[in-house]
Amino acid sequence: MFRIIFLFVILGAGLFAGTQYAGQQGYVLISIANKTIEMSVTTLVIFIIAALAALFALEFFIKKALSASSATWNWFSVRKMRRSRRYTNEGIIKLLEGDFKLAEKKVTRWANHHDMPLLCYLVASEAAQGMGESDKRDRYLELAAQQENSLLAVELTRAKQQVRESDFTAALETLTALKASYPTNTIVLNLLKSVYIELKLWQPLLDALPNLVKAKIISKDEQAQLTQRAQCGLLAEVAEQKGSEGLVSHWNNLPRKLKSDSHLVECFAKQLISRKADNEAFTLIKENIKKHPNSSLYALLPEMNLADSHPAIVFLETVLNKDGNNAEAHSALAQFHLRNEKWSEAQQHLEKALSLRPNVSDYAYLADALEKQNLTKAAHEVSRKALTLVQA
């Protein structure tokens, strides 16, 4: 546009000069080496204008030619990109369908022409993982890592693959490094939760629970369940490393709310029993049963190796005097009677317990008590009931 205006200005100036100096064309002499060129001023002006017009016309045609060439090149590039996208979409579908070989072939065939090669290589890596070709999987991940802004997507894909292969130690290393850069990423946090559980890293799991709730990855109820599981795991860990004394010390340092949790009390009692601290376990269970008469802790009493079982028997009899329909107390007392070869008393308590609720173990104990009293037919009938209960 500027050039056209410029030409019109020159033409206008020429016309104005022509009218002013009509009949006075002037004289121009151009001498180059041994050659001379003579012309009037008017001729020179017309020549200059024509030269400029020709130059502008040449520029226009050159630009048009280059533009056409570029458009043709862009057309081919866009065509390749569209084909690459189509193949990638088809490859993703094949990956979801489980046709890993065809998925890999489709997403890698035109990956160089895709506007996001990262997606192609990640899908190819998943396909290689599905075929069990770990070397190829890792090579695709390396290619994906060479793309811009690929860290999070690549490392998350790597971590998921490691978790699927149960390589939890490697997954922990990958996710720990990733968490440093993306501390609030929900997928990172969720994968770390699973890895902590699998590797029994209870303290890191406990530390992560508030963030998991905040990110709405788990509910409050799930937090409570995972807290119980982690605390029980810690009790077992401390018992293994520090013995019964260290276990008791750890328990005493827990918050009161946790120590009142019947599930954790049961975990603690089991660890005491496993460490041969049966007397301490008995005291713990007795105190908790007094607070919670319907506790599941009754079943642990017969498992204890007490030097004198009389205090436990007296305690259970006291409980039954207050509540004769306590099935768990009847069952525990019956097992003490079996240990002391008091078959008839054991039979009475087991029958009472089974009248209150069915229980496979109590049926087995009752059959044993009947056998000891030579009540074979009754023992077989009880065994059939136990078998029916198991099959149900």
From TrEMBL:
Q: Which residues form a coiled coil?
A: none
The TPR repeats extend over 327-360
Which SMART domains does the UniProt entry name for this protein?
TPR (SM00028)
TM ranges are 41-62
Q: Where in the cell?
A: Cell inner membrane
Keyword annotations for this protein?
A: Cell inner membrane, Cell membrane, Membrane, Porphyrin biosynthesis, TPR repeat, Transmembrane, Transmembrane helix
Membrane topology category:
Multi-pass membrane protein
User: HemY N-terminal domain: from which residue to which, for each copy?
Assistant: 26-132
Pfam families tied to this protein = HemY_N, TPR_19
Q: Which InterPro entries match?
A: Heme_biosyn_assoc_TPR_pro, HemY_N, TPR-like_helical_dom_sf, TPR_rpt
Main subcellular localisation: membrane
Q: Which NCBIfam families match?
A: TPR_hemY_coli (TIGR00540)
Name under which the protein is recorded: Heme biosynthesis protein HemY
Q: Which organism is it from?
A: Vibrio variabilis
